[in-house]
Specification:
The mean pLDDT is 86. The protein has no helices and 17 strands. With 197 residues, the protein is mostly beta strands.
Length: 197
């Protein structure tokens, strides 16, 4: 999609090009609604080109909203003032502010700073996607890997058996990575005493 900031007859200042999956209220200049969405992604990404005029900026924003509570559960944003003439990838991590699950995602693309748009600024976006964290255990032969004790107090031990090496990543309940360790050999200890309960 190509977005261009233009001056239109009824506006007193330029209006940024905008694309959203929500509903635009042109009087209040706000976006509401979005698309049904219940996942908790770790990031959004896509490809862009930009040709802002002067100090203008273009942006991608994703809001994860729980319509039942009215709260924004998480946000992801990409913003740039750079002139970029070749397709370049961006990644926008999601910052979560609530453990609630979203019910909708609201995505907005702008060709200009919405508070101070400059006529003639152009932004292009393509191939938007998101990445989610799969929490769980892959199908592994239970005879190969042992983990103990359960429950963990301060240390957790991993016996890899025939597996030569493994990477263990610890996430909290809302998907934030807390710790990562590279394991090798038969006995490995992971100190978890610094993690919150």
């Amino acid at each position: 999609v190509t977005l261009t900031t233009i001056l239109i007859q009824f506006a007193t200042s330029p209006v940024p090009g905008v694309v959203t999956n929500g509903t635009i209220d042109i009087i209040s200049e706000t976006v509401s609604g979005g698309q049904a969405f219940t996942e908790r992604p770790t990031s959004f990404s896509g490809w862009y080109q930009g040709a802002p005029v002067a100090a203008d900026s273009y942006s991608f924003t994703a809001l994860l909203i729980n319509e039942n509570t009215g709260d924004t559960v998480g946000t992801a944003a990409f913003n740039s003032t750079a002139t970029v003439s070749t397709w370049t990838q961006f990644t926008a991590p999601v910052a979560y502010s609530s453990p609630d699950d979203p019910t909708i995602v609201q995505i907005t693309l702008l060709s200009s700073d919405q508070n101070d748009p400059i006529e003639g600024s152009v932004a292009k976006f393509d191939d938007l996607s998101y990445e989610t964290l799969t929490v769980g255990i892959e199908d592994v032969d239970a005879n190969l890997i042992r983990t103990y004790p359960n429950p963990v107090v301060n240390d957790v031990y991993f016996e890899l058996g025939e597996v030569e090496q493994a990477v263990v990543t610890v996430y909290n309940i809302i998907g934030i990575k807390l710790m990562e360790a590279n394991l090798k050999g038969s006995n490995n200890r992971l100190d978890t005493s610094s993690l919150p309960s």
